[in-house]
TrEMBL record:
Keywords for this protein: Coiled coil, Membrane, Transmembrane, Transmembrane helix
Gene source species: Mesomycoplasma neurolyticum
Lineage start: Bacteria, Bacillati, Mycoplasmatota, Mycoplasmoidales, Metamycoplasmataceae
InterPro entries assigned: P-loop_NTPase, P-loop_TraG, T4SS_component
Regions annotated as coiled coil: 634-667
Protein name according to UniProt: Type IV secretory pathway, VirB4 components
Length: 868
């Protein structure tokens, strides 16, 4: 909590007795004199002193009653406001009746560049659109860094700014346009149509808070400098913002009072604020046909809670918060006088409870004075106005009640501005003059400590709806296809316990990318995606059953090497052969871990001879683009190995070579690999969604499974290696990637890393899922590689995990700052379908994933549930 002093004008009054000040006693004395004169002269005809006394006493008491307080306001002040309201003008129109003209109310003059002058040319203002940043998910250390940076922003205010919190109907037009552009009636129509219907229903029905900072100056050049200064300070807080042009600024002025989705403005003919009629009542006012009222904070508590601004903003009111730099010489004088009077009041207070209250208030005042003395923080005049609006009076009163309840949460008092609605409206306009005189002195850190820009929305202007932000219930549209300066690749890591929604979310990402004409390739070790792919008429490649799928390991494929594009054919072929040789070495080492270095060398010698037989080193075409039947197969490799063995003179070597040949012949000529790996490749990957079902391989030896996986990745890398700068993406989804980790052989994990790291250059996105993060920490080598893979993934999604697993996840994410204690607790208690989405090290969202009926039909397995 933070100390907050009371308004200095309250402290500055000397209290003589109870709550009566010197000025009250002066007024009381005047009341007695008036009563005496009235009784003496008005009733002069009656010489009886008793009658005069009887008249004087009630008159005096009546006037003294006016010195009593109601909600901290003297009754004579209410009387003054009432009388002033009675005699003031209350109706304004656009009929050009001079002071009754509506233009009399509006202070805005002409537009110059991107700014607006007031009518008398004494002040000009511009605006920044500020995009919220929720720091709740940041570590305490980072939160403090952000708060300190925002304090510096408020310290840099040299004149006046106004923070505007504007509740706006959410606008999904760009999302709807994106889906309409992608929509085709002959393809994907069923889920496209439901996505579109869903967004049309959500569009402009949901409300989200938008933030603006209005900046004032005396001339254009000064204003431009001030805006640039504050803009940079906000960026230092990692708060994105942009300067409004004059059309956006005029639209903002109108949105505060009037919502018009067809808003247009012609600077030559239109008034800046399009209000035709105004009528003021004691507790509300009407602008055209809409009801409005204004409220303000009458009194702050001595101790401020951190969420005090969030409570203020938690309603449909527009909040207009003026912050003005206070002249320091005047402030010092006021503080000196105020401290003296407050100390006097404290010493003379006899009531113990009141004395304790005054002592706390005096301590808060001293804190303010100390900060002023140190001169290391700005002290700002703060006036916060709630502008309430509704089409009916009942709803308007409900909004007012909600504001009052919200302030009670942090022990503040609200002022309904009875008889002062005109002044409240005038003060809601962007002008220099303060018509309310309700300014509260606040230090910069008391404002930044509350983090006013808390509402963070996230919309990639894409489809479909990803989910709801758990912190503020806003719609989230997340597209991992997007790359920016801050989002440098499309890779994603998804973690979560079984049954928490990890696989279902993966299907949602797949479907969204598939609907955008990307190609999806899934490595499925648990048979979890076959049904989903079949529903989309996709291709199932079953590597465990049947002989129809053939992959030739001796087919030369281009790998992830963008530099090959700049090489000559001969240079490229040499590098392709070198890369293929390296692949064959690793592949046989994985398949036969008992082969030693010399055994592998023997195989490579035979491979080199085959290269020569096929003239691969001298051919004048790209050897990675030959037809499938123009490459050698394992039969030819074995035959060449036999030739080498026959030419070997040492009998011991012949025996050794024969063992190697026998092993390969047993598997590739007569045995389990004969049909799959000893034929020309026949695998066509033309379908838009392909699932490699490797579930049956999971029950075989790990050498068989790992070698098959290594071969698949090599084949897929070869497929996409000629996709440099292609528009549509290819997505690799590796499900339950922990199953491919072998601490005895790092080749497979290294290959995954190369796919994640280099794929971005070929417009490839890689998504890895796992339920066992601890498998990435089995050894220092695996941990290092696991962290490198995570570091190469721009995005992350962490579903529910147990505390023990969260510890491992934190280690994996150490390179990007790890997880905060709050994030850990949320992951630990997450319901099904709830996740922490990591957009970047500094941008994270807690989501409840959204699934519509079509998605449920496509994604859910029998009896599956998602938390509602």
């Amino acid at each position: 909590m933070k100390f907050q002093s009371k308004k200095l004008k309250k402290h500055s009054k000397v209290i003589i007795w109870k709550k009566f000040t010197i000025s009250d006693f002066v007024l009381g004395f005047i009341a007695i004199v008036i009563a005496f004169i009235f009784s003496k002269f008005v009733f002069a005809y009656n010489q009886t002193q008793l009658i005069q006394f009887i008249v004087m006493v009630p008159l005096t008491l009546l006037q003294w009653v006016l010195l009593l307080s109601n909600n901290g306001v003297k009754l004579y002040v209410y009387l003054y406001r009432f009388l002033r309201f009675l005699v003031s003008k209350k109706k304004f129109t656009n009929k050009n009746n001079k002071k009754n003209d509506i233009d009399f109310l509006i202070p805005y003059g002409n537009i110059e560049k991107e700014y607006i002058w007031n009518k008398d040319k004494t002040i000009v203002f511009g605006a920044l659109r500020v995009y919220g940043k929720d720091i709740a998910l940041s570590s305490r250390e980072n939160q403090q860094v952000f708060i300190n940076s925002l304090t510096e922003f408020f310290n840099r205010i040299s004149n006046k700014i106004t923070i505007v919190k504007l509740p706006k109907k959410i606008n999904l037009n760009k999302n709807i346009d994106a889906i309409k552009k992608n929509f085709t009636l002959d393809k994907n129509s069923e889920y496209h149509e439901q996505w579109l219907d869903e967004m049309i229903k959500k569009n402009k029905n949901n409300i989200e808070d938008s933030y603006y900072v209005i900046v004032y100056a005396k001339n254009i050049s000064e204003l431009s400098i001030e805006i640039d200064k504050l803009k940079n300070e906000l960026f230092n807080c990692q708060i994105y913002n942009k300067k409004l042009n004059y059309l956006e600024l005029v639209k903002l002025l109108n949105e505060i009072y009037i919502y018009d989705e067809n808003f247009s403005f012609n600077s030559a003919t239109d008034k800046i604020l399009k209000i035709k009629n105004a009528k003021f009542k004691s507790k509300y006012f009407l602008l055209d046909d809409t009801y409005y009222s204004t409220q303000t904070i009458k009194e702050f508590p001595t101790l401020l809670k951190q969420n005090w601004v969030q409570d203020c903003f938690n309603s449909l009111s527009v909040v207009i918060w003026h912050l003005k730099a206070i002249d320091k010489s005047n402030l010092y004088k006021k503080l000196s006088k105020t401290e003296t009077n407050a100390e006097f009041n404290l010493k003379n207070e006899k009531d113990r409870f009141e004395s304790r209250k005054k002592r706390n208030e005096f301590e808060a005042l001293e804190n303010l004075a100390n900060i002023a003395a140190y001169d290391n923080e700005n002290i700002l005049g703060s006036t916060l106005i709630f502008l309430n609006k509704s089409i009916d009076l009942k709803n308007l009163k409900d909004i007012q009640k909600l504001n009052k309840l919200n302030l009670q949460k942090w022990n503040a008092k609200i002022d309904d501005l009875t008889f002062r609605q005109f002044e409240g409206f005038a003060n809601s306009l962007f002008r220099e003059k303060d018509t309310l005189n309700e300014e509260q002195e606040q230090i910069a850190s008391n404002i930044s400590f509350a983090w006013p820009f808390i509402y963070e929305s996230f919309n990639d202007n894409t489809f479909p709806i990803t989910g709801l932000n758990k912190n503020n219930n806003s719609l989230v549209f997340f597209d991992p296809r997007i790359k920016t300066e801050q989002r440098t690749n499309n890779n994603m890591f998804i973690l979560g316990e079984p049954g928490k929604g990890k696989t279902t979310f993966s299907k949602k990402i797949m479907l969204a990318n598939y609907a955008k004409e990307d190609q999806i390739i899934i490595i499925d070790p648990q048979n979890e995606f076959v049904d989903f792919v079949e529903k989309l008429n996709g291709q199932i490649v079953d590597l465990g059953v049947g002989d129809n799928v053939k992959i030739n390991p001796l087919q030369i494929r281009e790998n992830f090497n963008p530099s090959l594009k700049t090489k000559t054919i001969k240079q490229k072929n040499i590098e392709l052969l070198q890369a293929h040789e390296s692949f064959i070495r690793q592949w046989f080492q994985i398949l036969y871990p008992h082969f030693d270095k010399n055994d592998i060398i023997f195989i490579i010698k035979a491979l080199h001879n085959i290269y020569k037989n096929y003239f691969f080193e001298n051919i004048d075409v790209d050897i990675s683009k030959l037809k499938n039947n123009e490459y050698p197969i394992i039969d030819e490799l074995i035959l060449e190995m036999k030739n080498l063995a026959n030419n070997e003179k040492l009998e011991s070597e012949k025996i050794k070579f024969k063992k190697i040949i026998d092993t390969l012949e047993l598997d590739f000529v007569f045995g389990r690999y004969k049909n799959k790996f000893n034929s020309f490749s026949n695998l066509k990957l033309d379908n838009k969604i392909i699932c490699f079902n490797v579930s049956s391989l999971m029950y075989q030896e790990k050498e068989v499974f790992n070698s098959m996986f290594y071969l698949i990745i090599s084949y897929l890398q070869g497929k996409v290696s000629n996709r440099l700068n292609k528009t549509n993406k290819i997505w690799f989804f590796f499900d339950e990637v922990h199953k491919f980790i072998d601490e005895d052989n790092m080749s497979t994990l290294n290959f995954i890393y190369s796919t994640v790291k280099e794929g971005r250059k070929f417009n490839v996105g890689t998504v890895l899922t796992t339920q066992q993060p601890q498998d990435f920490l089995k050894s220092p080598k695996i941990e290092k590689m696991g962290q490198a893979i995570i570091a190469s993934c721009q995005y992350g999604a962490i579903f529910g995990l147990k505390s023990e697993s969260i510890k491992y996840v934190n280690n994996l994410f150490e390179n990007i700052g790890g997880l905060t204690e709050f994030e850990k607790s949320q992951i630990n208690i997450a319901n099904i379908g709830e996740a922490l989405i990591i957009i970047s090290p500094i941008q994270r969202l807690l989501l409840k994933i959204n699934y519509n009926d079509i998605e449920k039909e496509l994604f859910f397995v029998k009896n599956q549930m998602i938390s509602s």
